[in-house]
Amino acid sequence: MKKRTKQKAPYFIIGGILILILIVGGIYLYLDRHSSFHDKLESVASLVTEQVRYEADFTTEGYTLENANVVLDPYHISPLTALIMFETEESVAPTVTIEGKDKWTTYTHTFEEGTEHYLP
Description:
The chain has about 120 residues and is of the alpha+beta class.
């Protein structure tokens, strides 16, 4: 009598793996085509792109100290801020003083000398 060899076992394992791959691939394709997740994604601009867009309004050209370009909340993240921009004919170093209740809470800052000024 001839003994039976176990050569059929590898075919069953390979066939099972192929069927499993086909099932997983089919589920993936079905979910990919019928998922509304892709429709819910929105495009968000990078911070650098947003900054460049906002800074297009930051100009000193044609503005003076008496008629300054004032942009409230210049980067749209801090509503209690402003940016004041103006030109001077002579090179000056502007000084800004924020008065507090006393000398300890009063803040003074002198900016760099120049003819174009951007004061936060």
